[in-house]
Sequence to fold (697 residues):
Amino acid sequence: MTQLILEQALNGLQFGLMLFLLAAGLTLVFGIMDMINLAHGSLYMVGAYLAAAAVAASGSFVVGVLLAVAGTAVLGALLEMTVLRRLYTRDHLSQVLATFALILIANEAVRMVWGDQPALLNPPDALSGPVELGGFSYPAFRLLIIAVGTVVALLLYWVVACTRVGMWVRAGASNREMTEALGINVKRLFTLVFAAGAGLCALAGAMLGPLLAVQVGMGESILILAFVVIVIGGIGSIRGALVGSLLVGVVDTLGRALLPWLLRSFLPGEVAANLGPALAAILIYLLMAAVLFWRPAGLFPARG
Amino acid sequence: MRLAAVVSAVAATLAVSLPLGTSAHAADKVKVGFLSTLSGPGAGLGVDIRDGFQLGVKHLNGKLGNLPAEVLVADDQQKPDVAKQEAEKLLKREKVDFMTGIVFSNLMLAVGPQAFDAKTYYISANAGPSQYAGEQCNPFFFNVAWQNDNLHEAMGKYVQDKGFRNVVIVTPNYPGGKDAVSGFKRFYQGKSEEVYTKLGQLDYAAELAQIRATKPDALFFFLPGGMGINFVKQFVAAGLSRDIQLFAPGFSADEDVIKAVGAPMLGMFNSSHWAHDFNNPENKRFVADFEKEYGRLPSLYASQGYDAAMLIDAAVRDVKGKLDDKEVLRKALEAKRFKSVRGDFKFNNNHYPVQNYVLRVISKDVQGRVTNKTMSTTFSNHADAYANQCKMK
Fold:
């Protein structure tokens, strides 16, 4: 039993860390630029496709992932400078409409370039098997995801908390006008933040691609979860995004694993089999509702 | 407003009375609405059915029953609302003569009533929900493949006969998944634990951990398309394949999954009503031409698409192109005057096949390809369990 919980905790951690890569970019863009970017999931998709193409072309997983991250970051910067910059002063509804259009354009563009069928992206051979982990075996590639996620999370925390750029970012998130008044080039900062967010998206896409599937529309389902994460964590807060991601990851995984089993102990089998998965699927939304009820601004609001 | 109502009432009356006036003229072409899942994780299945169907039409020189064939292809994106919209277009605007192509049973149950109301024959090349086999059986529904339970029943019998008594069943939480569990357990008598996943789920970490903790001696999974590909990959990566024997219906162990997973699937037993090594002239031609045309081996889905085209062809030929007389057309469909690539089968009273089911094993063929090999016959002339609940009008 403890082994099961330990394995599920690892699974939750792995899922949560990948969500964090997505949520970090989203929360900064939302918090600093006050901009709802629905096309964030499209950058995740494009990153995964670029990774699949680059891995196939270079033959090396590491090189492929790095190229995809760099390529998507450049794409993100271009997108910010050409389209999104014009939307900052508009209201949220216009931003939602415009970035929703970007989703549709990105999906069709990817379909035109790579076709309808999922692209092939496999983990490196050395990591495709399991490793022994104190009594049970765990997929090596999932361990790599946990390692990469942890390193990136720490790095991001250090950048935001301890560097000058990070200070600008935090200042921008808590009061944009005041930051501008202090003479910081907010325009360039925005482009930088957006490119970094796009790069993190691509990293998540490239790491999750081999586990899930690199296909058109892969960004939309995970984008919803990323929004749940930043609402729980508090918009604009990196710390909130991390805590929110891990909460959502663990709650979702443990819920899916333990709820059906729990329900079976006091409900008839047929009912439990139907109710369990359904209830597990809405668990994270219950979590979000609960957080919003007691902490309407999220767990760690950036604007105190 | 009132004028508009009168006009539309007149128009509706005319539209209804018109077919009566022009009874049973031979049509000048056959229109088939091919609505299937052609994008997303389930796309591989729909693409195979489509390619099989198109190959059938090509073998018939672009004709169905000696009439020029027009196949209108539409994508349901595996979403019930999209499927209903597309079906509405095909039925109302294009006025197709036949519908076919749907992969997933939940979409079939959503679209079925539309086709039945329009009195258009639906020839299912895959989805075989228990509902349409039993009490809700409909004269306008034919299934040329199987009833959903059948392949699972065949696997249940094999797992039972092999002496496994502690089995975990993994299936998506949708009508086809429920049919899988009841089919498997109809012939498997031992202990079983069911794990239901979300339809379209791609990450099985939580379920695999649960399976590891349950310590079964065999695992039966029904996860069509991309779901199965991911499940098998993650099952192997988690190191579970060393202790647990995998079993699946043919859906989760055919060319689409084998191509993506490869060698880890060697030695896996699965059930089917068809295999590419079936030794009859129709099948040899089908398999050889499919490989030539598309550069890959056909899956059971492709064979079903091919048979759907052959059934329509035979029926249209029988009625000499008179598609308006629905009763006569129905008799012609029921008679099934064509040779299937699976060998012989006939339609039961509920318009589902009575046929043989075989056991296949994934192994290397003479060319060194990882693919299915037919082992033995599990059921002969096997019908489904719901036919006696069907009171076909």
